[in-house]
Specification:
Blueprint lengths: L1 E2 L2 E6 L2 E7 L5 E2 L8 H14 L6 E4 L12 E7 L17 E7 L2 E7 L10 H14 L3 E10 L9 E8 L1 H4 L26 H14 L3 E8 L8 H10 L3 E3 L3 H9 L3 E11 L12 H10 L1 H16 L2
Parallel strand pairs: 5-8, 5-9, 9-13, 10-11, 11-12
Antiparallel strand pairs: 1-2, 2-3, 3-4, 6-7, 7-8, 9-12, 10-13
Helix pairs in contact: 1-2, 2-6, 4-8
Bound molecules: ligand LQZ7MJT6 and guanine.
Guanine (GUN) binds next to strand 9, strand 12 and strand 13.
Keywords: Glycosyltransferase, Transferase
InterPro entries: Nucleoside_phosphorylase_d, Nucleoside_phosphorylase_sf, Pur_Nuc_Pase_Ino/Guo-sp, Purine_phosphorylase
Protein name: Purine nucleoside phosphorylase
Length: 312
């Protein structure tokens, strides 16, 4: 049966729903990419609610939503109120854009990000970054909870991301896949200077001031939601990754595509298990707990990095 372009096939107790385009071609959710115009609508909706222009977009990683609580003169907009926005489904990701001032710099925080494992295609996971750009943000700060692959990293340490390995991109999955709109950026953006060197240098100094153990390294993202096998982790280590997570890479690619300056860091929430005899298991509760444990020092750290960017 076909109604309004939606085909419903009954198979016993289950229904398979397929989508067909106007001329009958098969469509998937990936084909319904947001347009420049629809994201302008989203940004215009938010501009009507917020009387200032955010300079910096901040994405709060798992267990790090409280970064947004440090904002002054907060305006919180739940994702379900925002046109064309996805919904947060993960514990530790509240699901709201929070506008306000951090160190007197106007910012917008994503209290809750979108992940591929939630069922969202990568362009949709990264859609808020384009909205931040349309709102006027020139910088992106992306934070994530990650497993430490580098043997020198301890739980609670922070790794400044100097580069990433886009493993999902190796398999042809990229947030920029599909028609390119030049109003966002070029068809073939470079990615060799994705993470701003000056900000890394400044952040190292800030980390020392606030007493945060700091490293600089390479992040990689897998689709999740399962944590990795021992063999996968050994392979990632050999490839040169220092931390592994389930986010950030596609957001950074989207930000660089629209010429935003990027700073990112991983909070090490667990040491990756590369030993078959180890009986421990990584788990999401532990990830959130470590975020909470480092809450105060991370707020202080991010606030000072923001101040540095705002004063430039
Ligand atoms: O949103 P991030 O990348 O900070 O969250 C990581 C990846 C998974 O969502 C979760 C696993 O515990 O933490
Ligand atoms: N993929 C992945 N994501 C994480 N997020 C927090 N810890 C981990 C981890 O060990 N692996």
């Amino acid at each position: 049966m076909t109604t309004n372009g939606v085909k419903v096939n009954g198979h016993g107790n289950t229904q398979n729903i397929e989508y067909f385009g106007d001329n009958g071609q098969h469509k998937t959710e990936d084909d319904n990419r947001s347009t420049y115009e629809s994201l302008v609508q989203t940004a215009d909706f938010l501009k009507r609610l917020v009387p200032f222009k955010p300079e910096i977009g901040i994405i709060c990683g798992s267990g790090m939503g409280s970064l947004a609580d440090a904002l002054r003169d907060k305006i919180e907009v739940p994702y379900e109120r925002i046109p064309h926005f996805p919904r947060s489904t993960v514990k530790g990701h509240a699901g709201a854009l929070v506008f306000g001032y951090l160190a007197d710099v106007p910012v917008v925080c994503m209290k809750g990000r979108f992940h591929y494992y939630e069922g969202y295609p990568l362009w949709k996971c990264s859609l808020p970054v384009r909205v931040m750009k349309l709102l006027g943000a020139s910088h992106l700060i992306a934070t994530n909870a990650a497993g430490g692959l580098n043997p020198n990293y301890r739980v609670g340490d922070v790794m400044l991301v100097k580069d990433h390995i886009n493993l999902m991109g190796f398999a042809g999955n990229n947030p920029l896949q599909g028609p390119n709109d030049e109003r966002f950026g070029p068809r073939f953006p470079p990615m060799n200077q994705a993470y701003d060197r000056d900000l890394i240098t400044a952040a190292k100094k800030v980390a020392q001031e606030v007493g945060l153990p700091i490293h600089e390294g390479v992040y990689t993202c897998l689709g999740g939601p399962n944590f990795e096998t021992v063999s996968e982790l050994r392979m990632l280590k050999m490839l040169g990754a220092d931390t592994v997570g389930m986010s950030t890479v596609h957001e950074v690619i989207t930000a660089r595509h629209c010429d935003m300056t990027v700073f990112a860091f991983s909070l090490i929430t667990n040491e990756c298990i590369t030993d078959y005899d180890c009986q421990e298991n990584p788990n999401h509760e532990e990830v959130i707990d470590v975020g909470k444990m480092r809450e105060e020092v991370l707020k202080n750290f991010v606030q000072r990095v923001v101040k540095h960017i705002g004063g430039k």
